Structures
1.
Amino acid sequence: ALAWLSQLDHAFFLYIDNADDPDVDLNAYFPQTTRASILITTRLREAEQNYWSGSGSVIHLGPLDETEAKDLLLRSAGLPLSGTQENDIATLELHSHSLAIVQAGAGIFNMGLTAGAYLNLFRSMRTKLMNGVNDRVKSKALGGYLQNVYTTWMLSYQHLSSLAAQLFRMCAYLHHSGIREDLFFGSLVSMPRVRELTIPYTPAEAAAFDSLNLFLQNFVEVGTGFWDQHRFRTCMQEVCSHSLLDFDSENEAYRVHPLVQSRLKELEDNRTSATFLLATSGFTWWNDTAQILRLASHVEVVLQPLGSSEADAAESFVHVLCVGGRYAKAEPIAVNALNVTTAKLGNTHTDTLAASSNLASILGYLGRQGDAVAMCRSLFGAYSTTLGPRHPTTLAAATNLSCRLSDLGNRRETEQIQREVLKQHLTTFGPDHLQSVQSLGHLALTVGLLGDRRQSEQMQRRVFEKYQAMFGLEHRQTMLALANLASSLASLGRHPKSEQMKRVVVEWKRQIYGVGHPETLEALTGLALSVSRDSGRHEEGRPMFEEVLERTKEALGSQHKT
């Protein structure tokens, strides 16, 4: 056949479809003639280097856009082209993957279902529905393509090396996007810390932990003990080369198709290992706001009632979710951690008290101030008894109690507690220590609420200057202090300077937290009030209020009391 093609005296077109086997050299199948125009379709990234023939010879096909995906679904299913909202939802849940959409459309047609009915079936069966048997879809319904969705991916998966395949399977229990090298490196760093728990692991948990630890050791340089970035990236690039992962160079993160994740979960149950992976990474990046925010979407994926020995993982998850503004999702994790530590360690153990403190903070964020104050009083009493009234942990409990009392409007008791805490911190650490500066900041807010606005402004300015000296301007603590100083200036009628500061805070929070985060919306509300109420520029402030309202509706629903 090749000899015949090579002897043709006119131009012709040769189409090589689904060239997805990396072990096959297609050059052996090319006719030896300049009259041939050859089109190769492949999922292999390396094909670009192997068969490139000049500028413009390679076309990268991305996912379908929403309109294309919906049209393809309707045509494949034989449905009216006008469509309905359930058709839109179906294409979104198939993540605009063309083969998956064609297979779903053929399944809808063969089983006589509506898109909504198919979608409900898909949600319950998922991988089983798209195996070409349960959905009764034959290759001719897929445009002649011989493999269904999952068979196609499995053929690529089977070509991966053992380590690359193991790394890929770990991605099954993460969010489908934003998978970063930092997540795995962070986990390795904190593995020793999490292994030393007060409550021992169950055999299943210990096996999952040891499996993760052994896996991560593959990315440690022999001799130096350093993280082997080259080996990690080589493994991820191997997976990418088979089009099982995509790399987002702008954000330095990988993404995997959610349908592929569903199939991977059938190969190996890595949920507990993924729990440890995220928890340990959370401890490593505890004080790095940007890293913690990236972890939040992954933590949400593995959320479940944690095992009896995973209270330490719960501590990490609660922190990640709270920094991400996901307080309602953090609450059941915190409740479970408190129940576990109470049952295993008793009411007065430090781990139990720490779990109680986490829950009290969450209740405060959720607006349940009465419950939060009651828990904080109990904690303060317990720490005072077990550690003494001047212990740093006791003073931290006193600060938490004062903040909850302030939320209830009990300003005088708040001030009394905060002055005592500040006095102890100044005596122990001096005026430039972080604990002393934090205490001064808390007291400054209370002084302002009690009516001494000028003294409050002076205190807030000292706090801001000290934080800026410690951390620089673009740090969470510095920005919080700047926002508080801006509010103090507004209360003194210095509106232009206050507005200027608030704009800096809003812009920073948008970049770090995102536009819909509670802290960003709170800062934007403050700016809107400055522009509209304080400066009288109502038309300029109105869009800001509207943005806050719309994003709050998106997060909480239109019927929420907020």
2.
Amino acid sequence: MKYLVDTNIFLEILLEQDRHEKAEDFLLKVNAEEIAITDLSLFSMGIILFKRNKHDVYLEFVDDVLRNGTNLISLSIDKIPDTINIAKKYNLDFDDAYQYAVAEEFDLVIVSFDKDFDRTSRKRKEPGELI
């Protein structure tokens, strides 16, 4: 694994938002085995898509992404308290602190459109910077 792909990258594609082409290009050009998604991202996308009555889109996403070799990872139980320190240190919400902690634990590059990660020591990369 090399990249932790943040929720917003997948949502750009699934909701056909402004930067969906850049996100798609990245996911198509990078080997799926180099990509990781957190359990939190997977569930967050489910919540968002279900609220928009896009149940089938969520099921397709799970089939397309997770069955193609993308890694589903989660934060170790003993690392969960780290999210508090990370949130306080970098002024992040829980979602971002969790993503950051996972990136730290697995030593992954954060791929995101979320500028909040720019306040952290790991920073982030946008999809276009990596292809």
3.
Amino acid sequence: MKKKKEKISLEKVAILVDSLAEITKEGFDGVGNRLDKVDEQLEKVDGRLEKVEGRMERMENRFISLEENQLDLKLRLDAFNYHHEMTEIKKRIIILERKVGAV
């Protein structure tokens, strides 16, 4: 059985095109609204990210300061240990000299 082809009038085509245009416009408007919301969220995320970057930069500076202070403390401790070792060695030498009668 052959289907009978229905003739579409120019008026129906115009109505269909208008309907399609409206549907398309509504779709684009919806996408536009969603994109606006995404933009707002991205701006909020950017703001938070800037705060995090600032905090990380301050933390990095604090770590650098801690490392410098640690190095300074290590150098002082090394110098103290060297001085302490030398004092102990001098005491031992004096004891040995007394034992051998060199003093």
